[in-house]
Design goal:
The complex is a heterodimer of chains A (about 350) and B (about 325). Chain A is about 30% helix and about 20% strand. With about 350 residues, chain A is of the alpha/beta class. The two termini of chain B are about 30 Å apart. Classes of the chains: A alpha/beta (about 350), B alpha/beta (about 325). The structure holds adenosine-5'-triphosphate (2 copies), iron/sulfur cluster and magnesium ion (2 copies).
Chain lengths: ~350, ~325
């Protein structure tokens, strides 16, 4: 298990995109809690006009501030919530249209092909089900594995994620966080997906297990040709696993580049601050970091112009007035900043 | 001399499951000085959370504290009645949970939840609780607190939920705070703020802090002393600086080597093998099946925690032999 090591970024990729996202917008209305009338008092600009593509067998990293819209992006792509506007394509086919069509079989197939590993391995496992039932549940729904093979398949999946056969008869609460995340991954793999969204899959795990799960994801990518959208605020793991990275801030993409390029030459001030804020595992290191000041801006009333301007150390008069466009600065390094 | 606010001695907490007895915390001892920031680290499943839950006496079934002492300001908490403990929790000792949704009730809006905590422990005039709730939310950096306190946990992103959970833990100004992965779901710039916040609040309320985290970066920045757990036992205790400079236990050493660094893209060093089965834990030193320094004695004898230099404790039969070549260079 986990013999495979990630090399990162050095993979030859095919030209065709597995996922294409175009001008995606998701707003949530905010209501007042009046006794008689529920009045809309604002809009959360959770995802605000973002576009990107994910190539086959690529790992696309999505990083950014808490509440910037990463999970919402994932949920919209998976059609767990409806977009406000914009499109998303899976293998060239319009995801939202497909989910609206009445073809049940097609819908189920698409559901199977795109899977989510949850941010929170605690809430996503039914405490009354054994691990065996949890992992074999997709077989009931999708009927892609004959019952005679369930046991064998479950054991195989347990082995794949580094658990043991005797774990099959136990219940989720009997496991620690890291073990539960492995159960989640085994369940997700049970449906044999093509595209996996991993939303903070390792943030609750310790470093040695984190390394194992990251390597496991890499190994699975090689073995079964999975494509990932990897969502995390942990920059080290994003760097480790992603081929390309997009940085989100308040619903918008502010920088997008190849992983090495982004970490070596970040151009957008928020990206720079983000990289600087990572704690250094060395007590001797001078902690001279510039902690970004300012409130977390509200996605209900996002700042005008460049949304980062109230916290930006180099903002000028222009920044609150004009929204910087996401521009290719060469080598497919996209940046949204007037002064990058 | 600073006195200890917390003294844990020989703590054992087992889970009596159908499959067998899970020895989650098995003879753990350490102390916490007043105003100290202590780090509790260790592999997933090593017993960090259960240790914290044991101190608060909120170990879920089928778990039971079966032995040991947990002295809080000299009083053994394990001898207190449940009613006395209820008073302690929240007002004296509080915890920020690993999973913020487990400390927040999805059915009530944020204001109600914070108000209930405040009213459970203090007699505050009704009119003032709202002011206090807004204040608390502002302290933890929730923008537009007055509007957002009317919302429900599911309307908050992970990071904001964690801030609410911190606000909830601080509502009654505890003197001892367990922070169990308090920044797990946060973006690093916000993490930096929350850690600063915790440090400030710690000073402001004169709190002692037990910081539970996997992030050795946070440990390096936030704590002055570290307790390393492995499979329900303590394997090393040292001042933060010493532990990073001269780890003496092979597990600590491997742990530090597995830490990813942003400035280096490298293959991650994995600690080989699996998390030990705590129903039938390995004999002798519980780390021996995964330890590259293990000798025969390691399989047979449980290593005791020895003070090898002032305030540096190690439980390893081989520490002397390893330290000769294992000196970390800088
Ligand atoms: N159902 C909902 N109703 C109202 N607002 C919502 C809802 N779901 C999300 N939001 C808001 O949308 C914004 C984006 O949330 P999202 O969960 O996508 O953030 P995130 O980037 O995943 O954050 P985190 O890193 O904390 O998980 C937040 O302001 C959040 O409060
Ligand atoms: N309710 C329970 N029933 C049975 N075993 C349990 C229960 N709760 C915890 N355990 C076991 O106790 C051990 C310690 O768990 P604990 O949650 O303290 O680990 P941890 O160090 O906090 O890990 P993590 O870093 O993953 O949060 C684990 O082996 C776990 O499987
Ligand atoms: S006691 Fe033995 S097995 Fe345990 S850590 Fe030390 S050398 Fe390794
Ligand atoms: Mg999220
Ligand atoms: Mg824990």
């Amino acid at each position: 298990m986990a013999k495979h090591q990630l090399k990162g970024g050095k993979k030859t990729l095919t030209n065709s995109d597995l996922i294409t996202v175009e001008n995606l917008i998701k707003y949530f209305p905010v209501y007042s809690r009046g006794v008689l009338l529920k009045k809309q008092v604002g809009i959360v600009h959770a995802v605000d006009n973002i576009s990107f593509n994910i190539k086959r067998k690529e790992t696309f990293g999505l990083v950014g501030e808490s509440g910037c819209g990463k999970t919402t992006t994932a949920r919209v792509i998976l059609n767990l919530i409806e977009p406000t506007s914009g499109e998303a394509f899976f293998e060239g086919e319009n995801i939202f249209e497909k989910f609206q069509s009445s073809n049940k079989k097609e819908k189920l197939k698409l559901r199977r092909e795109m899977q989510l590993i949850f941010q929170n391995p605690y809430g996503s496992l039914d405490p009354r089900m054994t691990v065996f039932d949890i992992i074999s549940e997709p077989f009931v729904i999708h009927k892609h594995v004959p019952k005679s093979q369930w046991k064998e398949k479950v054991y195989e999946l347990l082995e794949l994620v580094g658990l043991e056969e005797y774990h099959a008869e136990r219940y989720p609460h009997e496991f620690s966080g890291g073990q539960r995340q492995r159960i989640c991954i085994a369940r997700v793999l049970a449906v044999e997906p093509k595209f996996l969204i991993a939303d903070e899959p390792v943030s609750s795990l310790d470093v040695s297990i984190r390394a194992q799960i990251l390597n496991l994801l890499g190994e699975l990518q090689e073995r079964i040709g999975l494509t990932y959208l990897y969502i995390s605020h942990d920059l080290s793991s994003v760097r480790q696993i992603s081929h390309r990275v997009a940085v989100m801030y308040l619903g918008e993409i502010v920088e997008l580049a190849d992983t090495d390029e982004l970490f070596k030459k970040p151009l957008q001030p928020y990206t720079k601050a983000l990289i600087q804020a990572v704690p250094i595992p060395d007590p001797k290191a001078k902690t001279m970091k510039n902690v970004l000041s300012g409130e977390v801006p509200s996605p209900i009333n996002p700042p005008s112009g460049c949304r980062f301007h109230p916290r930006c150390p180099i903002a000028t008069e222009k920044c609150p007035k004009e929204k910087p466009k996401l521009i290719n600065k060469g080598h497919a390094h996209y940046v949204a900043c007037h002064y990058a | 001399m600073t006195e200890n606010i917390l003294n844990i001695e020989g703590l054992k907490t087992y889970f009596f499951t159908e499959a067998g007895i899970v020895k989650a915390v098995d003879d753990i001892s350490f102390n916490l000085k007043k105003n100290e920031s202590l780090g509790l680290v260790g592999e997933s499943g090593s017993g960090k959370t259960v240790t914290a839950l044991s101190v608060l006496r909120i170990v879920p079934k089928p778990g039971k504290i079966i032995d040991g002492k947990v002295e809080f300001n000299g009083d053994d908490l394990l001898e207190k009645t449940e009613k006395e403990m209820q008073k302690m929790r929240g007002s004296e000792i509080a915890i920020i949970f690993q999973d913020p949704s487990s400390s927040l009730n999805p059915v009530y809006n944020v204001e109600t939840q914070l108000r209930d905590v405040i009213l459970a422990h203090q007699t505050v005039p009704k009119a003032e609780t709202r002011k206090k709730v807004i204040e608390l939310l502002e302290v933890v950096g929730i923008p537009e607190a007055e509007t957002r306190m009317r919302e429900y946990p599911h309307q908050f992103s992970g990071g904001m939920k964690q801030r609410v959970a911190i606000a909830r833990a601080l509502a009654c100004e505890p003197t001892l705070l367990f922070a169990d992965e308090p920044t797990t779901n946060l973006d690093v710039t916000i993490q930096a703020q929350v850690l600063n916040l915790l440090n400030d609040l710690k000073k402001k309320f004169n709190m002692s802090l037990v910081m539970i985290t996997h992030d050795m970066g946070i440990i390096a920045e936030m704590t002055t002393r570290i307790v390393v757990l492995y499979a329900g036992r303590v394997c090393e205790i040292a001042k933060t600086h010493d532990l990073f400079e001269r780890p003496r236990h092979p597990y600590t050493e491997a742990l530090l080597a597995a830490v990813p660094r942003l400035d280096m893209k490298k293959t991650l060093r994995i600690i080989p093998g699996n998390i030990p089965n705590l129903i039938e834990p390995p004999s002798g030193c519980r780390f021996h099946p995964r330890c590259k320094h293990a000798k025969n004695t390691c399989k047979e004898k449980i290593p005791v925690l020895e003070e090898i230099e002032p305030e540096h404790f190690v439980a390893c039969h081989e520490w002397q032999n390893i330290s000769l070549k294992g000196e970390r260079k800088h």
